[in-house]
Amino acid sequence: MPIFAVDMRKYISFDWALKRLLRNKANYVVLEGFLSELLRQDIKIEHFLESEGNKENAHDKSNRVDIMCEDSTGRKIIIEVQYEREYGYFYRMLFGTSKAITEYIEAGQDYDNVPKVYSVNIVYFDLGQGTDYVYHGKQVFRGIHDDDELKLSARQRELFGGEAPADLMPEYYVLKVNNFNDVAKDSLDEWVSFLKTGNIPEHTTAKGLAEARERLRVDSLPDDERRAYFWELKRQMDENDVMRSNYIDGKDEGIKEGEQNKSISIARMMKAKNYPIADIVEMTGLSAEEIDAL
To answer: What span, in angstroms and rounded, lies between the C-alpha atoms of 89 and 176?
Structure first.
């Protein structure tokens, strides 16, 4: 099968863009637009930082991408795209922000040098339980008696900026892409729609998407990059097919095992009540030898 028949979308997938294109300074505007829409503030990327996902590995079969960049104010932004279900993913998010903090503060530095970290998680599986498709989490301290929110003091606001401890601590964003209902109501929705469908509306108002329309076109990729992209899509399709086949086989085996256990339970009950062996065989499908062994 020709590799160019794998995917007929006009634009490359966002995870591939993160891996190969968006770390090019000329293309920062695309990722800056996405982050600006999500965080509701203008983001300017200063540079990308070394992380697990930034290390190119031709043999990496992981169905995820993770990168980290620093914006013009020194804040660290982790962006992760995950396709496969991972029950411990929330722990992974926590580990990622903790690691970013400890890696980018030197021993002996004051605590006010701890960087602000944002964790942006684009997931294509049903993470947790919730009906929305964009979630935002941050640390809020509330009084257990007065239910008031703990704020920074005037001196702390002067020294560190912000109004509350949450402004200093990590914040988390989770985009449950598959929950999106395909109706874009605002500019962030246009980005979520692109993440889900690979389509960009002609008259988009979202920051960065107009540039994405020009720079993420499949037909604008160099020949070698386009071949690599389609081979990667084919690899993902092959992996997904294997996983689906294994799931079906496992499900069938589970059903058979369940039916076998049910037959054994019925046989034991009938045997305890002294039913004739022939009746038990007829009822359960077990052999006389299997019933004798119970």
So the answer is: 13
